[in-house]
Amino acid sequence: MKSIVERYNKTKGENHQPGNPISEVKFWQREAAMLRQQLHSLQENHRKMMGEELSGLSTKDLQDLESRLEMSLRGVRMKKDQVLIDEIQELTRKGNLIHQENVELYKKVNLIRQENRELYKKVYGTGNINAENRDYLSTNDLGIEEDSNIPIHLQLSQPQQQNCDTPSRSIKLRRSPYLKQRGISK
Questions:
Q1: At residue 89, does pLDDT exceed 50?
Q2: Residue 102 neighbours by CB distance under 10 Å
Q3: CA 44, CA 47: separation in Å to the nearest integer?
Q4: What angle do CA 152, 157, 159 make, to 5 degrees?
Q5: Do 177 and 128 form a contact (C-beta atoms < 8 A)?
Q6: In whole angstroms, what is the distance from residue 147 CA to residue 110 CA?
Q7: pLDDT tens-digit series, residues 51-67
């Protein structure tokens, strides 16, 4: 019934004469009345959806409202699930990229470690590595294997001073004026 009335009003509105001010005023009055009616209907539906003013509804109306709410809720849940699935896929993709980057970094660290060993052998020679240098190599070795599941803990350290054959300097200690004042001897 509503659709028939709307089609009638629409057809009637198309036939109005734009030059006639009286018909134009009537047209806009009808439009305003229809918009008020739509606004009232929407507000009423909103109140019902929010669970307000349900006392005048019959059992059938309440069941219809419940089924509409369930359909709406199902739509919201489907949208939420889709958003979560998209986020999980994006995080999985980022995790795979980070894993690839880690594998590449492991390879670079292994290459640098090998280069360091070769340089160390060039500097100290392979035949005259004493026990201290062997300990240095074994303790400073990163121990990175090709297995990419083992976490690596890198740590910066200061270079070790090498034992040089320089004459040792003697350090002369003098008594502190504070100790002299207190009468404390060595």
A1: yes
A2: 13
A3: 5
A4: 130
A5: no
A6: 12
A7: 787 777 888 988 988 89
